Amino acid sequence: MKADSLQHSTSEPHSQGSNTLPEGQEVTLCPDCDLLVRVICLPGSAHRQVNSCPRCNRILREYHPNGLIKALSWVITGLVLFIPANIFPVLIMEILGQEQHCTIWDGVTGLYQQGLAGVAVLVFILAILVPLLRLLVLLQVLNAVLTGRHRQLAKKLFRYFLHVGEWGMVEIYLLGVLVAIIKLADMSTVHPGFGLFCFVGLMVAELGISLCLDGQTVWEQLGNEP
Amino acid sequence: MTENHLYQPYWNTGKQHHFKLCLDCHQVCQYHQRYCPRCGARVVSRRINSLARSWALTLTAALLYIPANLLPMMTVSKFGQGQPQTIMSGIFELIHQGMVPIALLVFTASILVPLLKLMGMIWLLLSVHYPTIALHKQMLLYRLIVWIGRWSMLDIFIISLLVGLVQFGQLGTVTAGIGAYAFASVVVMTMLAAMQFDPRLLWDAMDKDTAAQSDKQS
Fold this sequence. Notes:
The complex is a heterodimer of chains A (226) and B (218). Chain A has helices at 67-87, 104-113, 117-147, 151-164, 170-184, 194-212, 215-223, and strands spanning 27-29, 36-38, 49-52, 59-63, 91-95, 98-102, 189-192. By secondary structure, chain A is α+β, with helices and mostly antiparallel strands. In chain A, strands 6-5-7 form a 3-stranded antiparallel β-sheet. In chain A, strands 1-2 form a two-stranded antiparallel sheet. In chain A, strands 3-4 form a two-stranded antiparallel sheet. With 218 residues, chain B is mainly alpha-helical. Chain B is 56% helix and 9% strand. In chain B, helix 2 packs antiparallel against helix 3 (100-129). The two termini of chain B are 19 Å apart. Classes of the chains: A alpha+beta (226), B mainly alpha (218). Chains A and B meet through strand 1, strand 5, strand 6, helix 2 and helix 3 of A and strand 1, helix 3, helix 4, helix 5 and helix 6 of B.
């Protein structure tokens, strides 16, 4: 639904930029077009509600019933799947009886050994480090929201989470695995390994988190002083 | 801020009413507050040096795009023979082997998407100086650029996987080439350029333009 844009009628004289908010209204600014809007929430609804900016259609807030608990369960799922996804091989290739296993970490070390250190570090950050950090930070933050302890640390961490979160590329890595399988299919036999299924599970967990976590709800919970 | 009594803006913006938004926690702050009261981040009305940073990153990425396409990305060698492959030659190789959908995917991710991002960012950056009426299309383009940017990393991940997997000595070996460095830099820089760009500047430019035009008419 569209948030209310607090437009003044054209018959009123234009006031000289007031510094005070209208009383008792929850107003916010649109991050994409700087519009002053009032967000609307129908309380007690069992369905997901979304508020979007009336001028530029950017999503401002989402209201998920039980969103935080759902997000926590996805985070735990993701963390459980993360370790096997990185330990077990993602692809197994066979030529004339010789077998080669490849985990994500093997791809990184392979690039490093061939002299492309920068690209190796980049792949490590994008495919291993950032997904792990996202999950760990969310674990701490959701724990802080639900139990009310360690809020200062959670605030600091959650700030970085929102920025760093854009650099997680698990689903693109999986598409790359798919393309690699097809590319190598005529050269030899390639099997998916157990690590690949765990990695797909990790992607599903990240998807679940993005569907039911709203940053604004978390900030409101964190920001309330006891 | 000059006050023009004939121009009454239809929309209320934060800048008019001396509010600014914390970019981390989206808390509305007063103009004079340097740090957000809720999350402690530094609050600015518009991203610092948004235009300068975005221009610099976009132009550097555009320059790096040339070596990314000319230098080889990887070499597949069997029995000691192998041709270094650039992005385009890799795509032609895939077409020759009959894998046309994959070739199209790699072409889209490695050539079309970076070109779209570069040209799109340049258009958006120019529009801040020369406002056009296509603001909603520009917002759509901006959001598309932000979302689609990461998918260009596909080729880098494919190379990483092949390098880790195909190490059979004489039977088949994949070595990565220096073009991967240039291409990875292009992708990272275009992502950063889109993140540093502040779309509110487009709306500011449009408001200023409308005010100037109604000034002229009065």
